[in-house]
Amino acid sequence: MNRAIVAISLGTAALAAVPLGAQAAPKPPKQPGQLTLAAQPNPVVFGRSVTLSGKLTGPNHDGKSVNLQADPFPFESFTNVASAMTSATGDYSLTQKPTVNTRYQARQGGNESAIVTVLVRPAVRLRLSDSTPARGQTVRFSGRVCPEHDGTTLSIQRRFSTAYRTVKRTTLQDVPGSPCSSYKRSFRVFRDGRYRSVIAGHADHSTGRSRSRLVDVHS
């Protein structure tokens, strides 16, 4: 056999005999950072603030600028609305005051968070003309809803056992020069009860509820 061929064959066999662990292993790729986002409270009442916070993990996670993007109803596109720097632990936090249901997403470099939808409840107020009426007396239930939802139905509900039920309905009216709507509805009450006003959710806002008010009927 040709000596050159024998030498090549022996060299190939020697390489095959080297254990795999002894060969130079390629370096594992760097894991990209991950960005989280959460909202609290959610839903939020119209006119109040929501805190949007999260964490950037992975290498070099401190001192990074995180951009917050918002896409308010009718959900057409995201735009930058705020930014924050991550702390030494990669945490960041911002506050926003959405006026309608809004989608949020955080971005940092090539990282992006999941989309978080913040629901906005209309602010509903309820007033009573008399909270301690005589039995059978007419009581006026009135208040405002912000932002305005003129022409929308509002329900006045009374608590029965463990659940509220609608007892009267009325229509929200325009308030000239105001960003809110108003309502009023009068009816007779014959027994004690806890009442609240409710406007059902729509595409732009979640369901809005007033604080409950107690009617203490006396003879």
Quick summary:
With 219 residues, this protein is mainly beta. 7% of the residues lie in helices and 47% in strands.
Structure in words:
The chain is mainly β. The chain has two domains: 34-121, Sandwich (Immunoglobulin-like), CATH 2.60.40.1930; 123-215, Immunoglobulin-like. It has one helix and 21 strands. It has one helix at residues 3-17; strands at residues 34-35, 38-40, 44-45, 50-57, 65-72, 79-85, 91-96, 102-108, 111-112, 116-118, 120-121, 123-124, 127-128, 138-146, 153-160, 163-171, 173-174, 181-188, 193-199, 208-209, 213-215. The strands form five sheets. Strands 5, 6, 8, 9 and 10 form a five-stranded antiparallel β-sheet that branches. Strands 12, 13, 14, 17 and 18 form a five-stranded antiparallel β-sheet that branches. Strands 15, 16, 19, 20 and 21 form a five-stranded antiparallel β-sheet that branches. The termini are far apart. Residues 1-23 have low confidence and may be disordered.
| Outline | elongated
Tell me the domain tally.
2
Q: Whole-Å distance between the termini?
A: 123 Å
Strand content: over 45%
- Please state the oligomeric state of the protein chains shown: single chain
Backbone CA Rg: 32 Å
Using the 3D structure, state the CATH architecture of the largest domain: Sandwich
CATH class of the largest domain equals Mainly Beta
**SSE series:** HEEEEEEEEEEEEEEEEEEEEE
CATH 4th-level superfamily of the largest domain: Immunoglobulins
Largest sheet: 5 strands, antiparallel
Based on secondary structure, the structural category is: mainly beta
Give the helix level as a range of percent: under 10%
Task: Count all strands and give the number.
Answer: 21
The number of helical elements comes to 1
Spans where pLDDT lies below 50 across 5 or more residues: 1-23
Provide the CATH topology of the largest domain.
Immunoglobulin-like
Q: What's the mean pLDDT score? A: 89
